[in-house]
Amino acid sequence: MNAKNTITRSLSRVISNRKMALFLIALPGILHFIIFRYIPLFGNIIAFQDFDIFKGVFGSPWVGFEHFIYMFSYPEFYSLLRNTLVISLMQIILGFPAPIILALLLNEIKTMSFKRTAQTLLYFPHFLSWVIAGGIFINILSLNGIVNSIIEALGFSPIDFITESGWFRYILVGTGIWKGVGWGMIIYLAALAGINPSLYEAAVVDGANRWQRMWHITIPSLIPAIVVLFLLRIGHMLDTNVEQVLIFLNPLVRDVGEVIGTYVYRVGLLSAQFSYSTAIGIFKALVGLILVVSLNSLSKRLTGESIY
Amino acid sequence: MKRISIVILALVLGASMVFAAGEGESTQAAEKPVITILARMSNAQSRYDLWSNESEVVTEMNRLYDKATIEWEFFEHQGGNEILTLRFASGDLPDVVQLTSIRDNAAPTAVDNGIFVPLNDLLDTYAPNISAGVTDYQWENPKLSEPDGTIYGIPRMQAAEIMFSVFARKDWLNKLGLDDPETIEDYLEYFQLIKENDMDGDGDTTDEVPFGVRAGLGYSELFFAYFGVHPNAWQVIDGEMIPNIVNPDMKDAVAFWRDLYSKGYVNQDMFTRTGGDWVAQIRGDEIGMWCHDVQNLNTSWNLNTFNNPDADLVNLRAPRRADGTVPLASRGTGTGHIYTIIADSAESPEAVVEFFDWHWSNDAAMKRFFRFGVEGINHTIDANGNVQYDSSAPVNGPDGNMGLMRATFALNKDLRLEEDVIKIDQGNMAEYILKGKPIAAEGAFDNPALYMPKLKASLKRPELGYRGGGGTLFMDMFAKVVSGKEDIDATWDAYVADWYDRGGEDVIKEATAWYNQSNK
Fold first, then answer.
1. Least confidently predicted of A106-110, B15-19, B324-328, B389-393
2. Largest separation between any pair of C-alpha atoms in chain A
3. What's the pLDDT band for B45 if we cut at 50, 70, 90?
4. Which residues have C-beta within 8 Å of that of residue B191, sequence separation ≥ 6?
5. Bigger pLDDT: A171 or B162?
6. Mutation test of the interface with chain B: which of A67, A243, A270, A273, choosing the one with the most B Cβ atoms within 10 A?
């Protein structure tokens, strides 16, 4: 009976200590990160080995920087890097503003039922897999698809969009926007909902029209969300959605469409080149890290906003 | 007091349950071994749910083979390589694993690390039927054994040596007043007439495609062997092993394909057409000719699946060359996929080998089971001892369990083209299969690279290959020239030079060395 009381008393003392309590609440999350994010980082060591799944990390031979040297001396490497960067930049320049614009538009709608229905329909494509979405678009854009039927009806000759180098990147980015814009705007809609309505009322009293209200109130209120999401996005600069590119890629557009991710998929699949794929992964992560760190400090200086 | 007694009671109950379970296991182990097999689902949609370890079929199999209990485990066809790789990496493996070869991409160094059980002695002692049924030459296949002669894989034979064939719409040929095409001119005439006429009766002469081709030339390598350069094969020229994809004659084949494309004889989206769409278009009266495997007449090309009730099919020979041959596809090794025994998992490799040997034996009940299913459910035996099999019964149809029986569960061979199967399973396509099988066989030619193992020089240069496993140089050149985007002369020369530059020289050197060494 006495032991029970002592235990209860010391427990409550620990919990009432604020710092301890916070630490205990955060503990599961911290453990999750240590176990599933930081410890696996040591696995990157296989990029410096000739990894054999049966020999394991401690039994596989060491090869130093061989994989990195091979990667940089691969004739197509710079073309892969270029394609990856170009497609990523296009996705950012064209694709990053899209959810913001859509959120701003949707915010102006006053009929709640329409707003909600539109929202649901807009973020529905996000849940489709690229196998389905890609298949639909390949059909629509094919030579005897709907788009070309319209083009022919207007008197022009049909365009094979998916196999034209000039169109391919735009198709990738465009379909990507279609699929992701509804989901991306949710955060912005949430930020917009948090704007104090009295600001708008004050602006109306001062004689501001719709555009002026948007420029002076709405957009500045969104800046924190925009900066954070943009910085997070930059870290994935070299990633490009591999699943999407694989679905659309064909021999006629390889020079503009093959990205680092699809190359790793081809080489990795061929002879289970774990070490080589890891080396490429390290390269991508390093580039992403440098971009995030430098842009973060830049953003801190320019806008005062940053992620850390 | 009460609390303590409850705790003691719980402990006693728990302990007795543990001992009881242990008791059951040990008696089971003394009876017969359990063999676990990991196999890959085929691409076709089949009812794998009917093959759970408790199903009638597997229960019947275990009744017929009473020396061991067999348990099956399947993994998806899509992404199967990644699943297998993970299993090998984690060491979570059953007794038997189905692979494409002992150097399968999922575990290319397994042999070097002693993962598989060497089978030579086991086969000699426990598998008389397998040893009698597989020739020494077939054992030399690098899919099954290492150059030093150690065998690590048990073969599963394909349905026939050559199953690849050309299919054409017989009703369209009749409508156009043509005989079955034999020469290249016959083929081109068939194509031209399809373009000029309305074949499906909708009034539009332009919506039919003479030759339906899939993305990446999947199952569509026609008009290559005619020029002597099937892209999958190699040839010995002036003592060197040269792959056909850089053979000078390939330029003629590519030029021919370019003409097919510009005349509209092949579908203009041949570089992006998926398999699923291709099948739908064939069944939808849009395509006059295509290529596939003969045994699929029962499934993909069953006339019941065609929209047009008057549709009829015929298998064609490939166009005849000047020397009278009709080459289409290279003669295979006969071996389809293989089975390996995992050293660390298999408690009794002898029991496994015996089980496989059973499939190669002349056990009448076993043969009847794998060909015609469970007695009383899929077939019955009449008074004279003959098999009575109703192919139209639902249990024997696409929604039943027979599709998997012959294609997956018979571990010795794909039984779909066996004579007795075709004769008794008088499905509506039986006659077509009987006619198509020998026609397909005529298309075989010999490929000197048949037993060539993966070349080290090409491991780091996947783009030098034909297509599977990362090959891109040839397919990219082919696509650009055939679609008319680039001129053939300049592009061909640049492509060949590029191929040699990137390591093609080393590939040829290694291949030639292998050829000389294995043909001493």
1. B15-19
2. 94
3. low
4. B210, B211, B260, B263, B265, B288, B289
5. A171
6. A270
DSSP string, B405-424: IIIII-SSB-GGG-HHHHHH
* Main-chain phi, psi angles of B58, to 5 degrees: -70, -35
Question: Is any Cβ of chain A less than 8 angstroms from the Cβ of B85?
Answer: yes
Give me the amino acid identity at B498.
D
pLDDT tens-digit series, residues A31-48: 999 999 999 999 899 999
For residues B437 and B295, give the distance between their C-alpha atoms in angstroms, rounded to a whole number.
Answer: 8
Contact B476 A254 (CB under 8 A): yes
pLDDT at residue B216, as a whole number? 87
The answer to whether residue B90 neighbours chain A at the CB level (below 8 Å) is no
Largest interatomic CA distance in chain B: 101
Nearest-Å Rg of the Cα atoms of chain A is: 26
Chain A: closest CA distance from residue B270 (Å): 10
Cβ–Cβ gap B480/A143 under 8 Å: no
Judge contact between A257 and A173, C-beta under 8 A.
Answer: no
Which amino acid belongs to residue B194? I
| DSSP character string of A164-212 | -HHHHHHHHHHHHHHHHHHHHHHHHHHHHHTS-HHHHHHHHHTT--HHH
Q: Report ipTM (2 d.p.).
A: 0.75
Burial call A157-185: b when 16+ CB within 10 Å, e when fewer: ebebbbbeeebbbebbbbbbbebbbbebb
pLDDT, tens digit (0-9, with 9 covering 90-100), for A195-230: 998 999 999 999 988 889 888 999 888 888 898 888
A267·B89 Cβ contact <8 A: no
* A227-247 confidence digits (pLDDT tens): 888 888 888 888 878 889 989
- The CA distance from B1 to B213, in Å, is 82
- CA dist B161 and B295 (Å) reads 12
Q: By three-state DSSP, how is residue A52 classified?
A: coil
Contact criterion met (CB < 8 Å) for B272 and A251: no
Using a pLDDT cut of 70, give the percent of chain B over it: 94
Out of A52, A70, A272, name the one closest to residue B106 (CB): A272
pTM value? 0.81
Sheet containing B34-40: give its strands across: B69-75, B34-40, B96-99, B335-341, B153-157
- Are B428 and B59 contacting, i.e. CB atoms less than 8 angstroms apart? no
- CB-based contact B479 A251, cutoff 8 Å: yes
Q: Would you say how long chain B is, in residues?
A: 520
pLDDT digits (tens, 9 = 90+) for A19-78: 888 999 999 999 999 999 999 999 899 999 988 888 888 889 999 999 999 888 888 888
